[in-house]
Design goal:
The chain is an alpha/beta fold. The chain has a five-stranded parallel β-sheet with strand order 2-3-1-4-5, sandwiched between helices. α4 packs parallel to α5.
Length: about 190
């Protein structure tokens, strides 16, 4: 089973590249961001709680995310594997994901780290907000989300590096070039 984590700062292109990876490799997509936005739109109990954190540029508490993820994994088809987009976001989530996958008899094969300069990240976030109407894609929240990313998500780089699973991907240039770099890395792993 091919299980891949794709991570990078907000605006690094995780969602775009995940969609391309899914089409090419047939993996099941798990985007906690999409799931949380759906829960918020539906005003579910989880959505209401999550919205309080997200609107301030903070991360949703780990225990809520892990509980949600376990339910999704139980319901999702697992023939080829999963791509985890935007999860894990903290070292604790990375450890919890490893534990959860181990319980299910599988593991993460690779952690793709999309590297993009901060000025470009902010430009992408603001552009995405203008195009999609996402309320959380504004300048103030973008800076808050980047600050949270640097303090809480950056440690994942070392976590996956120690496991020999971290692969740095240059996340700048056109979408096709970035995807080609990703495919070269994935193909090396699965062959």
């Amino acid at each position: 089973m091919v299980n891949i984590v794709i991570f990078g700062a907000p605006g690094s292109g995780k969602g775009t590249q995940s969609d391309l990876i899914i089409k090419k490799y047939g993996l099941h997509h798990i985007s906690t961001g999409d799931i949380l936005r759906e829960e918020i739109a539906n005003q579910s109990e989880l959505g209401i709680i999550a919205e309080r954190f997200i609107s301030k540029g903070q991360l949703v508490p780990d225990e809520l995310i892990i509980r949600m993820l376990a339910e999704i994994l139980d319901k999702a088809p697992t023939e080829k594997g999963f791509i985890f987009d935007g999860f894990p976001r903290t070292l604790e989530q990375g450890e919890a994901l490893d534990k959860l996958l181990k319980e299910k008899g599988t593991c993460i094969l690779a952690a793709l780290n999309l590297e993009v300069e901060e000025s470009e990240l902010i430009e992408r976030i603001l552009k995405r907000g203008a195009l999609s109407g996402r309320k959380d894609d504004n300048l103030e929240t973008a800076h808050a989300r980047l600050k949270v990313y640097y303090s809480q998500t950056e440690p994942l780089k070392e976590f996956y590096k120690k496991q020999g699973k971290k692969i740095n991907i240059k996340g700048t240039g056109n979408i096709e070039d970035i995807f080609e770099r990703i495919c070269q890395s994935i193909d090396r792993i699965i062959k």
